[in-house]
Amino acid sequence: MKKGSFTVEASLIFPFILAVIVLVIYAAFFIHDRAVMSAAACKAAIRGSEITDPHGDIYDKARKTGEEEMKGRLLSTRIRTIDINVDSKEVRVSVCGDFIIPGGVIPVPGIEGRGTVIKVNALSSRLNPAEFIRSCRVIEEHVGRD
User: Fold this and answer.
1) Contact 129, 52 (CB under 8 A)
2) Of 65, 69, 70, 121, nearest in space to 93 by CA
3) Which residues of the chain have pLDDT under 70?
4) Domain segments of the chain: what residues?
5) How far apart are the first and last CA of the chain?
6) What is the pLDDT of residue 144?
7) Residue 52 has what pLDDT?
8) Cα–Cα distance between 99 and 111 in angstroms, integer?
9) Helix (H) or strand (E) holding 135
10) Element holding 76 (H helix, E strand)
11) Dihedral of the CA atoms 140, 141, 144, 146 (nearest 10)?
12) Which residues contact 126 (CB under 8 A, 6 or more apart)?
């Protein structure tokens, strides 16, 4: 072997190793932000389903819960929208955000421009706790008798 051959080989291999490390870090950021957004959407849906007062503002409380859960916890995502749909039986929360690749240096397949979109959905059934407990007690009374 000639002197300096390791330096030449390392200079050819190092950029690929560095690119793989950077892609792994970006993937970890993506997975982390998606998990945070998913947990926030679930908490917001549950918070909205807990409100049984017909005059209570389900939308506002669910939105605030989702925003508080994500505040300061996202690494590389900017929240675009938080959509809340409420009907008589369930609360649906959809969170959409732009995942930004810092610098946008490395082109990643499936990611256009400087980032991609993360969308998560959560669903929670609306229950009236008092009515649920009454129903359980009625069932216990009928099942408990022989």
Assistant:
1) yes
2) 121
3) 1-4, 54-55, 102-114, 144-146
4) 5-144
5) 91
6) 66
7) 73
8) 10
9) helix 129-144
10) none
11) -150
12) 48, 49, 52, 86, 88, 89, 90, 91
Residue with tokens 């008798």: 145
58 token code pair? 């389900």
Contacts of 43 (CB under 8 A, 6+ apart): 65, 66, 69
Q: Cα separation of 48 and 123, whole Å?
A: 10
pTM of the model: 0.76
Q: What is the distance between the alpha carbons of residues 33 and 80, in angstroms, rounded to a whole number?
A: 13
Quickly count: other Cβ atoms within 10 Å of residue 77's Cβ.
25
CB 94, CB 83: distance < 8 Å = yes
- E-strand ranges in 3-133 read 77-86, 90-100, 115-125
Which pLDDT value is given to residue 22? 85
Residue keyed to tokens 């605030």: 64
Closest residue by Cα to residue 44 from 97, 99, 98, 92? 92
Would you call 78 helix, strand, or coil by DSSP? strand
